[in-house]
Amino acid sequence: MIRIGFYGNASDIAKWETSLATRLSDFEINELLSDAGAASDVALVWAPPPHAFANCRNLRGIIMQGQGVDHMMRDDTVPRDLPLVRLIDPDMANALSHWAILNALDFWRDGAAYRAQQTAQTWRSLPQRPATGGRVGILGVGAIGSVIATRFAALGFDVRGFARSPKQIEGIELFVGMNQLADFASGLDIVVSVLPLTPQTTGIMDAAFFNSMAPGAFVINGGRGPQVVDDDLLAALESGQIGGAALDVFAVEPLPESHPFWTHPQVRVWPHVAAQTNATSAADQVAEAILRMMAGESPANRVDWARGY
What pLDDT score does 28 carry? Predict the structure, then answer.
């Protein structure tokens, strides 16, 4: 029997049991921190506390319930000799692209202004931005970012991508490495971040970045909160250099009640919901990773501890 130790929303255990039932022949799922969880062969987790794996003597690997692994990187109690797998779920790419496009188009077509006019019962047209040629930059063009980039391009935007290493995406201009970051940001009307959090990407959207964008530009962050320097974004909003922001992730979550983002008229706060894990669409990948780990093989989408993702 394969014993799976689960940490996350306990109500999701039943969903995973159902989704994995047709893919694994003999398994059980227990809460990771329970007595039964200590016998786990594989862990399926999201943001477990420090020392969560201390009693798991049979553990062969850890599977994340999402793409982000930054909290695991910060936890030096996570065993570095075990495979750590990040979830790359095509449904998450679809969901995140929907969320990014929703916010981008609402900004591009002045949704907030027209909603305010409706409240005031004002009938007045605003100058319309061009339907093609708006400059959109995607920070991080991996499994999710490449989907977002191609969908923005299909809508008529002029799309750029920023990546750590060279790659090719048809119709997308690529900028590679930190020495090309300023060129990437130059003149952007909209930026979308789906980057992983690493020392290199922490604070990547700062005053210099915002000042390189087009005046009145829009910022969309679906990557990780610490990639935005909050004070710099607030200052750019105050000056008008940045015209608005949609933020799904924050340096501290839940976002503290006293944080100015909550009440800022040009900021849309989303509670880390841009792309939620779908146990049905992710089950094939999770089952394959479990079977590989049980067979002593290296699973796909294994995290490189040195690289940070």
Answer: 97
Give the residue from 156, 212, 151, 204 showing the smallest Cα distance to 184.
212
Which DSSP letter does residue 82 get?
S
| Annotation says 264 is catalytic | no
Helix 90-108 to helix 145-154 angle (10° resolution) is: 40
- Are residues 96 and 167 located together in one domain of the fold? yes
Express as a percent the part of the chain with pLDDT over 70: 100
- pLDDT at residue 68, as a whole number: 86
Same domain, 130 and 169: yes
- Catalytic, 224? Answer yes
Whole-number pLDDT of residue 193: 98
Determine the pLDDT at residue 89.
Answer: 81
Among 135, 224, 268, 302, the active-site one is 224
Please give the single-letter amino acid code of residue 91: D
Whether 300 is in a domain gets the answer no
Among the listed residues 272, 292, 302, 307, the single catalytic one is 272
Write down the pTM of the prediction.
0.90
The total number of structural domains in the chain stands at 2
